[in-house]
Fold SET domain-containing protein.
Amino acid sequence: MEATLLISPVSMFQAWYRKGMVKASLNNYSSAVHDLEVALSMEMSSSGKSNIEQELNLILQMHENINEVGTSNHGNKVADLPLAGQPHKVIAESISTPIKGRGMASIDDIAPASLIHVEDPLAAVIMKSFRETHCHFCFSETPADVVFCPLCTIPIYCSKKCQEQSVGVISCDQDTHIGHSGHAISLEKLSIASTSFKPPSSKLFAEHRHECGGAHWAAVLPTDVVLAGRIMARSIEKRMLSGKSFAISGPNLDLVHHYDHHSPANKLESQIYAIVLLLCLQNHYRSDILWKEDSLSQLVLLIFQIKVNSIAIVRMSSVDGGPELTVKRGVSAAEGASLCSVEQVRVAQAIYVSGSLFNHSCRPNVHAYFLSRALVLRTTEFIKSGSPVELSYGPQVGEMHLAERQKSLQENYYFSCHCSSCSELNLSDLVMNSFRCPQSNCLGAISESTYYRSKENFVNVSLGGSVYCKLSLPDVSEVGKDMENVAKSLFENSGVSLNVDHGCCMSCRSYIDVLSAVATSHMEESKIDRLKEFTLVDKTLITKALQSLKQLKKLRHPYSKALAQAEDTIAEAFVKAGDQDRARKHCEASIQILEKLYHPKHIIIAHELIKLVSILLALGERASAAATFARAESIFSLYYGSHMERILAYVGTLKRAVGSGSTGAY
C-alpha cells in the first residue's frame, strides 16, 4: 500500500481512500477519519469531495452507535453482543500478495480460539425456502405467534423489535382497521417513519421499507438482486441524511466483481434485473431521486459484486431429534434410540464488507459463524504475526478432493486456489477417492489420476481433461508414516522422474482395473445408502448392507471417504434397529477414517463424536460418554469459544446427560 503512494496523485488519493474505508469496515474509526481527511485534501473534483464528505459523515455517525466491542448497539437480541464487556482490538490488517491479491494478515501473534472479527451485514435477505419458518430480520426460527409486517403479508418476524428494525417505526392515528396481527391500524394515517418522500430521521436503516407496498418485487426477484436493492436503498438514504440532492448511484464497495468472466447471457439477464430494480427504487422514492448516466452500469456491477462476495448465513439444525428433543419429551438419554446429528442450513444471504476481505484457504485458520445477523470470525490455530488470516469459502481438505475444490472455486469465485493444501501433496487428496492395493500387506493408494514426479521434486497431477495441477513434494523428514506408506514410490529415489499411472499403486506399483472398481464401488455404495430411506430397519436390510460394506472394503482404500460414509450410514441403521453395541463399532470406524482425512481437532470430528456420545449414553456407559463428550467439547470451544452453547443448543443438554461439570479446554 505504501509503495503505491509514489506513483501518481490519483494513486495517492485512492490509496488513502481505500485505507480509510478498510479501517472503517474494521471499526477502527479514528484512523479511518484521518485517512479519509487526507484523501479529501487530495481529491480535486467536487463530486469526489462530496462523496468523501458523505462517507466521513456516515463513519462519524456509526462511531457514535458503536460500543466498546465494535458491535452496533441495535439489531441484536438478548445479549447478542459477542464479547460484551471485553475491549475491541483490531488484530488483522489488509495486505496485498502477488498470488492472492488483497487479503488479511495478523498484526500480532494470535492464539487459538481468539475472536478476531465481528461485523453486522451491510445488507441481508432471507432465502426463499425459509420465508415461512424463520424471522426475516434475525433469521432465527419463528415462534407460533409471529409478528407480520403491518403493510404487507410477505415478511414475518419473531418479535416486535425485529419488525421495527426491518420495517421502521409505525405510527397509527384515526380511521383504524384490523391488521394482520389483530391490532387496530389506520388505513389513511398509517405511515412509516422516514417515508419515501422525506429525508430519514433515524440512523437505523429499515431494510424492508422500500420494498413494502404495491407489487412486492422483493418476493419474486432473485436474492442477489434483492440484496443489491437493499444496498442501493441504504446508499440513497445516506445521501438523504446529508441533506443534499442525490441521484441513483452505486456505493463504492471496492469489491471484486469478475464481470468479464460471465457469459453474455448472464450479463444481459443482470442488465434486465438492474433496469427493473431501478424502476422499483424510483417508484418508492418518487421524485426525490434522479437517474445518472452510469446508474445502470453501476447497479449491474453491484449485482456481480454480490454474486462473488455474498456470504451464506447458516444455522445449525437437528436432523434426527437427538438428545435435545429427547430431554424435552421427558425421556432419559439412555432410553433414546437416535443419533445426535446436526447439519448446517443456509437460511439467508448477506454482504459483509470487511468480511469479504478475508481470503480463502482449503485448510483455513479461521472459523466463521453467526450470532443473529452478525458475522463472527474466530481463530482455530495459532497464527504467527504477519501470516495470512484465511477462512473457507466452502471447499475444504477432507471434504472435497483437490479437483472438486478447484472446480467449485473456479465456478463460483473465478480463481484457482493456491493455498498450501492446493500447492503441496497431502494425505487427504491422495486417499479420499482412492482404491486399495491388491496386495494385502500394502497400504498404497490407487488413484484414477496420473501422478508424474519431476527431478525437481514437484508432482504434476491430472485433474481431468487437459487440466493439471503442480504440487510441491513435502520434505520427507516431515512426512508422516501414513503418507509415506500410501505413496512410497513418490518419496523414494529423489531427483528421478517418475510416472504413477492411474490404476497403479503409489507404493508398490501393483495394478487394478480402475473402471471396473469404480462401477462395483458405486453399486455397493448405493445399496448401503438405501438404509437412509427407512425409518425402521430390519435385520435383513442390515445384513445386505454389511455384505456390501465387506465388498467395499476390498475395493476402497482404508482411508477413503466412501468407507467413512458407509460406516456412518450402517451405524445409524444399527441405532434404528436398537443394536447400540454394533452401532458403536461402526461409528468409531467412521471417526478413525475422518481423522485421517481432516485432522483430530477438526469440527467435523467433534460432530461425529457427539453421535458416539449419544450411542454410549444409550448403552449406559456414562463414563465413556463423558470422556468422549469432553473431547468433542474441547474442539467445539476452539471453533465457537464462549458462544458454543448458543450455537449448538444440544451441548448443554448432553453435558447434563453425561453428568460432566467440565466446560472443556478453551
Q: What stands out?
A: The mean pLDDT is 80. Residues 264-285 form the longest helix (22 residues). The chain has 21 helices and 22 strands. The radius of gyration is 28 Å.
